[in-house]
Design brief:
mainly alpha; 0% strand
Length: 142
Protein backbone atom coordinates (compact mmCIF):
# COMPACT_ATOMS: atom_id res chain seq x y z
CA UNK A 1 0.00 0.00 0.00
CA UNK A 2 1.44 3.35 -1.06
CA UNK A 3 1.19 6.35 1.22
CA UNK A 4 0.64 9.69 -0.49
CA UNK A 5 1.72 12.79 1.41
CA UNK A 6 -0.08 15.95 0.41
CA UNK A 7 1.69 19.24 1.01
CA UNK A 8 -0.35 22.33 1.72
CA UNK A 9 2.25 24.70 0.32
CA UNK A 10 5.04 24.47 -2.17
CA UNK A 11 8.54 23.65 -0.98
CA UNK A 12 9.77 26.55 -3.08
CA UNK A 13 9.82 29.04 -0.22
CA UNK A 14 8.65 28.95 3.38
CA UNK A 15 5.53 31.11 3.92
CA UNK A 16 7.20 33.26 6.61
CA UNK A 17 10.22 33.72 4.35
CA UNK A 18 7.87 34.82 1.55
CA UNK A 19 6.17 37.37 3.82
CA UNK A 20 9.52 38.78 4.93
CA UNK A 21 10.80 38.98 1.36
CA UNK A 22 7.67 40.70 0.08
CA UNK A 23 7.65 43.01 3.09
CA UNK A 24 11.24 44.07 2.51
CA UNK A 25 10.47 44.82 -1.14
CA UNK A 26 7.46 46.94 -0.23
CA UNK A 27 9.34 48.83 2.48
CA UNK A 28 12.26 49.62 0.17
CA UNK A 29 9.84 50.69 -2.57
CA UNK A 30 8.03 52.99 -0.13
CA UNK A 31 11.39 54.46 0.91
CA UNK A 32 12.27 55.19 -2.72
CA UNK A 33 8.89 56.85 -3.22
CA UNK A 34 9.45 58.91 -0.05
CA UNK A 35 12.82 60.02 -1.40
CA UNK A 36 11.16 60.98 -4.66
CA UNK A 37 8.53 62.96 -2.75
CA UNK A 38 11.30 64.77 -0.86
CA UNK A 39 13.11 65.55 -4.11
CA UNK A 40 9.95 67.18 -5.46
CA UNK A 41 8.63 68.97 -2.35
CA UNK A 42 11.74 69.54 -0.16
CA UNK A 43 9.64 68.64 2.89
CA UNK A 44 12.15 67.22 5.37
CA UNK A 45 9.65 64.77 6.89
CA UNK A 46 9.83 62.65 3.71
CA UNK A 47 13.47 61.79 4.44
CA UNK A 48 12.49 60.81 7.98
CA UNK A 49 9.86 58.48 6.54
CA UNK A 50 12.42 57.03 4.14
CA UNK A 51 14.93 56.44 6.95
CA UNK A 52 12.37 54.52 9.02
CA UNK A 53 11.19 52.51 6.02
CA UNK A 54 14.78 51.56 5.19
CA UNK A 55 15.35 50.48 8.80
CA UNK A 56 12.27 48.26 8.62
CA UNK A 57 13.42 46.82 5.30
CA UNK A 58 16.80 46.03 6.83
CA UNK A 59 15.14 44.11 9.67
CA UNK A 60 13.02 42.08 7.23
CA UNK A 61 16.02 41.43 4.98
CA UNK A 62 18.15 40.32 7.93
CA UNK A 63 15.59 37.71 8.94
CA UNK A 64 15.23 36.58 5.30
CA UNK A 65 19.03 36.16 5.19
CA UNK A 66 18.78 33.86 8.20
CA UNK A 67 16.26 31.77 6.25
CA UNK A 68 18.68 31.57 3.31
CA UNK A 69 21.55 30.47 5.56
CA UNK A 70 19.34 27.76 7.05
CA UNK A 71 18.24 26.66 3.55
CA UNK A 72 21.88 26.43 2.48
CA UNK A 73 22.67 24.19 5.44
CA UNK A 74 19.73 21.85 4.86
CA UNK A 75 20.36 19.63 1.83
CA UNK A 76 16.72 18.75 1.18
CA UNK A 77 15.80 22.46 0.86
CA UNK A 78 18.73 23.45 -1.35
CA UNK A 79 17.94 24.75 -4.81
CA UNK A 80 19.92 25.42 -7.94
CA UNK A 81 19.63 29.21 -7.61
CA UNK A 82 19.80 29.50 -3.83
CA UNK A 83 23.43 30.69 -3.82
CA UNK A 84 22.73 33.46 -6.34
CA UNK A 85 19.59 34.37 -4.40
CA UNK A 86 21.60 34.56 -1.17
CA UNK A 87 24.24 36.74 -2.80
CA UNK A 88 21.57 39.10 -4.14
CA UNK A 89 19.89 39.25 -0.74
CA UNK A 90 23.22 40.04 0.89
CA UNK A 91 23.92 42.73 -1.74
CA UNK A 92 20.47 44.19 -1.10
CA UNK A 93 21.21 44.31 2.63
CA UNK A 94 24.61 45.99 2.11
CA UNK A 95 23.25 48.64 -0.27
CA UNK A 96 20.31 49.29 2.06
CA UNK A 97 22.68 49.59 5.04
CA UNK A 98 24.74 52.25 3.27
CA UNK A 99 21.47 53.88 2.20
CA UNK A 100 20.45 54.01 5.87
CA UNK A 101 23.77 55.66 6.69
CA UNK A 102 23.13 58.13 3.87
CA UNK A 103 19.70 58.95 5.31
CA UNK A 104 21.17 59.44 8.79
CA UNK A 105 22.74 62.64 7.55
CA UNK A 106 20.98 65.96 7.18
CA UNK A 107 18.07 65.96 4.71
CA UNK A 108 19.86 68.33 2.34
CA UNK A 109 23.01 66.19 2.42
CA UNK A 110 21.09 62.96 1.77
CA UNK A 111 19.98 63.99 -1.70
CA UNK A 112 20.41 63.07 -4.54
CA UNK A 113 22.62 60.15 -3.44
CA UNK A 114 19.90 58.82 -1.11
CA UNK A 115 17.40 58.67 -3.96
CA UNK A 116 19.86 56.87 -6.23
CA UNK A 117 20.73 54.33 -3.54
CA UNK A 118 17.03 53.79 -2.82
CA UNK A 119 16.34 53.06 -6.48
CA UNK A 120 19.32 50.67 -6.66
CA UNK A 121 18.04 48.92 -3.53
CA UNK A 122 14.57 48.54 -5.06
CA UNK A 123 15.99 47.10 -8.29
CA UNK A 124 18.09 44.56 -6.38
CA UNK A 125 15.08 43.77 -4.16
CA UNK A 126 12.89 43.12 -7.22
CA UNK A 127 15.43 40.73 -8.73
CA UNK A 128 16.05 38.98 -5.40
CA UNK A 129 12.32 38.61 -4.76
CA UNK A 130 11.72 37.20 -8.23
CA UNK A 131 14.60 34.78 -7.82
CA UNK A 132 13.51 33.83 -4.31
CA UNK A 133 10.00 32.93 -5.42
CA UNK A 134 11.15 31.06 -8.53
CA UNK A 135 14.01 28.98 -7.12
CA UNK A 136 12.92 25.36 -7.30
CA UNK A 137 13.91 23.33 -4.25
CA UNK A 138 15.04 19.73 -4.48
CA UNK A 139 12.23 17.44 -3.42
CA UNK A 140 9.61 20.13 -3.85
CA UNK A 141 6.57 20.19 -6.07
CA UNK A 142 8.04 22.84 -8.34
Amino acid sequence: MAVIVERRYSEAIHPLHAVLLAGALSLFLAAALSDLAYARTHEIQWTNFAAWLIAGGLVFTSIALIFVIVDLCRAHRRARGIVLYGILLLAMWVVAFFNALMHARDAWAAMPDGLVMSVVTVVIACVATWLGFHAARIGGTR
